[in-house]
Amino acid sequence: MSGLLTGAGGRIPASVLTGFLGSGKTTVLNHLVRSPGMARALVIINEFGAVGLDHDLVARSNDDLVVEMIGGCLCCTIRGDLSRTLREAPWRFARDGQCWFDRVVIETTGLADPAPILHTLMTDPHLEALYRLDAVIATVDAATGMATFDTQSEAVKQAAVADRLLLTKTDLVDETVQRAIRVRLAALNPAAPVITVTDGAVDPSLLFGVGLWDPASKSDDVRRWLAEEAHHGGNHHHHHHDVNRHDDGIRATCLTFDTPLDPMAFERWLGLLTMFRGADLLRVKGIVNLAGHDAPVIVHGVQHVFHPPVELERWPSEDRRTRMVFITRRIDPEELRGTLALMTLGLSDVQLEGLVERVAADLPA
Ligand SMILES: Nc1nc2c(ncn2[C@@H]2O[C@H](COP(=O)(O)OP(=O)(O)OP(=O)(O)O)[C@@H](O)[C@H]2O)c(=O)[nH]1
Hints:
Elements (H helix, E strand, L loop, with lengths): L11 E8 L5 H8 L8 E7 L5 H7 L6 E6 L6 H15 L10 E5 L7 H9 L1 H6 E11 L3 H7 L1 H9 L2 E5 L6 H14 L5 E4 L21 H8 L1 H4 L6 E3 L9 E8 L5 H15 L3 E8 L8 E6 L2 E2 L3 E2 L10 E8 L3 H11 L5 H14 L3
Parallel strand pairs: 1-4, 1-5, 2-3, 2-4, 5-6, 6-7
Antiparallel strand pairs: 8-9, 9-14, 10-11, 10-14, 11-12, 11-13
Helix pairs in contact: 3-4, 6-7, 11-13, 12-13
Bound molecules: guanosine-5'-triphosphate.
GO molecular function: hydrolase activity; nucleotide binding
Protein name: GTP-binding protein
Function: Zinc chaperone that directly transfers zinc cofactor to target proteins, thereby activating them. Zinc is transferred from the CXCC motif in the GTPase domain to the zinc binding site in target proteins in a process requiring GTP hydrolysis.
């Protein structure tokens, strides 16, 4: 695995702002671009159709801001568009021969699955050299969120993969409704802090600079990223939430391992898991203690695509356990744990494939 290790470097942080139609993305963005720390943000907006309404709304709020709009269907054509836009941006928007922006925010369409955008950022070698993924931010409408989650699987996925959840329009609902949506968000994505946002007002420091491989990251960031505290009250080795049948079997699981993992076994396990169940691994992130490595390795995956593992310079805290968060669809967390544990026992490839196949077969698609 060491051949894949890359440094974080001084790359430009890119954040993804997602959330269902009308949930308040543009309102949040309008507030953000007026914040002092955002003066050098490049905003990229993806919209369906020819009417660039969001583009006008945001662009008018700040004369200096560069807003680049890309159209087309997110799932197919956008990946090329986004990739080209991001690749050309440092030169296209240069001032005095210098790259002018120090941050990128990509707003997705309300109907989009954010996974293709994350894949683009994670896998395009040109983009890898220029950018690093900061946080995925999702807006959730407190007034309509419950009904939307019941009927729109993309909305569930947007909230499930986010690093930060912005609960908007709480001014329109009473306490009971707000509590219900918070319970649902906690089950869907317990690792993501929920921030109440009225009319877009949110402190940018809560949203930015929270990516794991921020070179300036302090030890606390890793714990925040994994929201470890939220998961481990005592000596429990795993934690999972009951499947909410409305949420398509999406659940979050945190697995911890006390002893270092065999690098080969771990890599093969991830390989098999992505091969057989990639579509249902909505997001995986973790800090991994590999045998023979002094420092931890960070893994980050979205569906079948895994970011090249990043080796941190050192352990960020005394806690040297492997800790991984899995946001999965229709995968039993116990099976995840079981297959990795077995893999470390040194089973043959054939046995391992059989195992993973069995996991796959046990779970109705
Ligand atoms: N009452 C209330 N209205 C809000 C709040 N936040 C946003 N809105 C309103 O909700 C509507 C939709 O907000 P937008 O920011 O356009 O939502 P969006 O997610 O960008 O929408 P799309 O671009 O269609 O996906 C607008 O009329 C906003 O003014 C809030 O906290 N409270």
